[in-house]
Structures are given as C-alpha cells and as structure tokens.
Please model this.
Amino acid sequence: MISIRIQQLTKRFGPVTALQHLDLTVNPGELFFLLGPSGCGKTTLLRSLAGFYIPEEGTIRFDDEDVTRLAPHKRNTGMVFQSYALWPHMTVAENVAFGLHERKVPKNENNRRVAEALESVHMHPYADRRPNQLSGGQQQRVALARALVIRPRCLLLDEPLSNLDAKLRLEMRSEIRRVCKEFRLTTVYVTHDQKEALSIADRMAILDGGRILQVGTPREIYRRPTQRTVANFIGETDFIPGKVLGTGENFVTVETGIGRFDGVLGNPAKPPAVGGEVTVSIRPECWDLHRGHQPRNAVKGRIGESVYLGEVAQYEFITGNGTKLKIFERNPRFGDGPDRGELFATVEPADVVVLVD
Ligand code: ATP
Model:
C-alpha cells in the first residue's frame, strides 16, 4: 500500500490551466474519488498520476519516491478506462497476460498470476473467450483483472462503469470496492456519478477550475459542504440568502426572507461576522411537514406542484413570500386533498448549513 502525495501540481495545455497548484494526499489503501463539473481537471489529474501527462510545476510522490517525471511503464500503476480497451483478437486470458509479457514474467508464474487475477474478479470460467463473446460487465471485469495482474502500486480508474447499464453499475460498484480492499490497493477513481462516489468512496475531492474545493468522507462532503459550489454540485439543495443575527457556541442564527434559522457553519474556520451576508443551504430531504404551528426553524407555506413516487413524494413548497422550496417527504402523507392547505415545514439546526461564499 502506498500513499500518493501531490504538491503544488500545475498542468497547462497552451492557454488553458487544467490544474492549478493542486495539493492532495491519498492515504495508503484508500479508495479515493475525484468529482467535479465537466472540465474541472479530474482526468488531467488522473493522467498525471499515470504518467501520461508531465506537469509544468509541482511534484507527485508514491510514498517517498518522486514519480513526477517518470515514464508511465516505470510507475507500475494499473489503469482501467471507460472503454475497457481490450484487444478483440486475444482471448480473455491473453488480454490479462499482456501486461506480464511486457514485464517479462516467466511463463509458469505468468499463468498462475493470470488465473489468480481472473479468479479475483470471478472471470476464471471465461478465460478462453474473446471480448466480443462477453457482456459489458464481464469485459469491465477483464479490464480490472488486467490492471490487477501486474500487481500495481496503485489503481487508477477513469469512469470505469459509465458504459454499463444502471443495474450492472450497481453490482460492479461494490465489486470494485471489494477488489480494492482485498488487494489493499490505493485507488484513485474519476467519475461523473455522485451516487457511485457517495456509496463506495473512503474519501473524495471536489474539483473546480483545476483546484480542489473540498476533501472529505462522503458524509462530510454531503452534510457539511464548506462552500456553495460544493453544496450545489453534490445532491440537491435550496440556497436561501440571509444575514447573521448572532452566533452561539454550536450554531449560527440567520434571518432570511422566509424566516429565522439556527444552523451550523459549513466552514467553521471562516466564521461570518454578525450582520454579515451568508447563504443558507437546506437539502430537500431534511424538511419535515406539520399541520400545526411550529416554534423553531419553521416556514409556513403550502404544497404547489407535487410528484408522488411511492416511497417518497417531491413537493414544491410555496412560502408566504412566494419563495419555492424543494421538499421530499418519505412515506408521503401530505400533498393530497385537504393537506394542500396551510402547512409548516421544519428543519433541524444540524441540517441547516450556513455558507459564507
Ligand atoms: P470531463 O468531466 O468532461 O471529462 P474533466 O474534469 O476530466 O472533464 P479534463 O479533461 O481534465 O476535465 O480537462 C481540464 C481542462 O483542460 C479542460 O478545460 C479541457 O478542455 C482542458 N484539456 C484537457 N486535455 C487537453 C488537451 N489535451 N489539450 C488541450 N486542453 C485540454
């Protein structure tokens, strides 16, 4: 298991700066995700780790070894691409063995390692088939076996599941986590799929404009975004502008156009001043609906548009001043007939995230 330490990494493509003085440490054995809007630099960072791009500034270290300018084949990283990149004329076993031939591993050792790698992704029975005789999920398992067989120092995954249908993606998600943990591999995984990241990541980084905005566990990132861009990127949320009325030991009180809220700071290192302008972020599933008046963190309103989905209903909640909030109700009881009248929506202070920028 190695650590990956990235310091002040800058990569430019002509006038475009794809990575800007980026610092990041991935811990040994960690399954680490890179997430962010299109063009934020995820792929550039992954390719710099693999050695396909050489940065203009900064360093990449695998443990204590500086690999910043090392050729890709000398880094011994296992890479899995979205497109599988399997050779169509070779069998599954030959595809997996390919990287070993290049490394001049002796033949009997070679066969043992191919069998082991195929077994670890449950593809042993398919060793003699060709890629076009396999399903998408099976091809992706072969691509994973091919990355594992070289006993890589770390695994780099570039949207490995995006060509699979939804059900297979779910299955392969947990397979990838199982394999990474079984092989005790430090893994960096690029995806567009937030659910993929939230469900299996140990930690993740949110990138924007070639910089890292926040690093944390899935729960930290989802529940305590430090800034608006992160809250907006991960999951759904409503942003409500307001002014700080006061700060307590564990919470901040904010006056907004729809009422007064006690909440928590997204970034405790940057507390706002009393009177300072802030944004309150509240996720749709954090609200509770009631018929009667509620004393704290409550908004009066009525349900407008509603979408009933069985286990959950999605409401447009229209407050007294016309502000529209998204509210999701689990085990829906409201939103029908008489319940379309006046209601109170409440939210726990721990679910009200106060953001300074
Ligand atoms: P996506 O989610 O769309 O795959 P990304 O986050 O992986 O995006 P990158 O592919 O890393 O983003 O691109 C970062 C920036 O660098 C973008 O502005 C992109 O246009 C630019 N870029 C990437 N590769 C090159 C290249 N080979 N030549 C020129 N510009 C590039």
